[in-house]
Amino acid sequence: MHITPAARFLPSGDTALVVEFSDRIDRRVSALVLTLAEKLDAAAIPGVIEVVPTFRSLMVHYEPLRLPQAELRQRLGPLIEGMAATERDGRHWRLPACYDESLGPDLADVAQRTGLSVHQVVERHSATTFHVYMMGFLPGFPYLGDLPPELELPRRESPRIKVPAGSIAIAMAMTSIYSLESPGGWHLIGRTPVPLWDLRRDPPVLLAAGDKIIFEPISLREFEALTAKLTEGDYRIAPEAAPSSGTRA
Amino acid sequence: MTAALRVVSPGLMTTLQDLGRPGYQNLGIPVSGALDPVSLRAANALAGNPPGSAALEIAYQGPTLAVEADSVRLAYAGAAAGIEVLSGDEEAGTRRLAPLQSMRLRRGQVVRIGALNGGAVAYLAVEGGFAVAPVLGSRSTYVRAGIGGIEGRALKAGDLVPMAQVYAEDREEMMLPSLPLTAPSRFRIVLGPQDDYFTPRGIETLLEATYTVTPASDRMGMRLDGPALEHAKGFNIVSDGIAPGSIQVPGNGLPIVLLADRQTTGGYPKVATVISADLPALGRLTPGCKVAFTAIGIEAAEAARRQMMADLEDLTRQLAPVRHESAIDAARLMASNLVSGVVNAREGNPEGA
Lengths: 249, 353
Hints:
heterodimer; A: alpha+beta; Gyrase A, domain 2; Cyclophilin; 4-stranded antiparallel sheet; 5 helices; 24% helix; globular; B: alpha+beta; 2 domains; 6-stranded antiparallel sheet; 23 strands
């Protein structure tokens, strides 16, 4: 069923406009955001520079001297009208994840605070197919959801000054992978050897909003072997073929 | 043949910047680019470059650079600084490079740029531009991800910054009569997108208070000190996009204006956005500068941008040949006339021999 979703236009100065569908994190809202992003890309409206999907809104960056905001609003109306909140098929990735406590220093703490065993934490985290809601915070940093509710925790009280690149982390209803070494306040539960940011790739960023991710547990030995292979350049990760849309609810 | 500027001393934070790297914010890659695109364009116009060519962005303390090319034409625009040109041979002595005019330097000469005065940034452009491979369509340095410029970082001593041209074109030096770089008494903002996260009193504070730029400011954001803004419903929002000039207000109520290296998304409410026409002036502010805001509508903001772009177009029309150089040329011309006059006199008197 196609219902015109309620959208608010919020100016962000004279060169960006927010199209806000909601103020919460929700897969249906995310579907609306990503659908509009796709439609705007396809429409190739002169004056639109780029669009940035977020959890609940789409930011449209534009050149007002080619496309004044009033005109942009008019062009957006028909694109939003009748839009369905249908999740599109993104790329599917299986990312090797090493949940060894040497690489996930908060595993024991997370287990203790959630009342689960370390094994159960890993099991739940690696049994979920995550949706990339948006990219942000760092180049190539994906916001993945939704975390199984029993793993939800607030951010750490004291953020770390240095989180190594590749760290798999959780906070609130989200999980992510630090794409670059950076300060960070999420709980570190493991690490992937696959670089999310690699300048030898074009673009250097691996993931994009709308992708689906499954973490595949690997041992510390496998982690080290993959890391070595990656350094030598003889390991490449590619998305799997997406399951046919017929299997989707 | 290679041509380069060799970094003798790097200055405080000298990076290559152009007009930025739009098009990848959906992957979390910031736009970056010059903090003061007006001065960047001026430097490029003087050097005879397209407006968006990459130039050295100099922050607070300038670098010392040696010419390793047959010749190079330099142009400097932005905050005032003492700029000495040290000659290779002692007898030639020291010259000065005036801001807003181009100058040709020879191999072995050294340009030494001192402390910046009255502004945070300035730009040094070279004729033909710098020969650095663009990353994702831009030469702008973004240090956090190590991309653009020289190895994705600020210059350091010993670097060779490659130039596209081996020698400077033989042409007149150009100057600009002036470049208005004074800050507006009030920076113009458009309220939103999350002005509803602030109480009426919070908005009033923003529009009436005077803030001070703190030293904790960088290319990512300008942190302001002053009266705290009163939030209406907490200071966490579900992350959404960040625009250039977004004014985000974290829990302490103090505004942060997001600049060139801003993150693409963020989870603090953004009370307002500095209009694009006033952003270059904001990028020039140094710690201790006073900042006040006034709210305007979107049409007025668009009109201001139109005016700024028209003024920038006008820059190239204002370019004029440097006068004292033409005076030297006139003297040279006269000298050669005298010589040829002698020759002519001789030739004109065949019987005299």
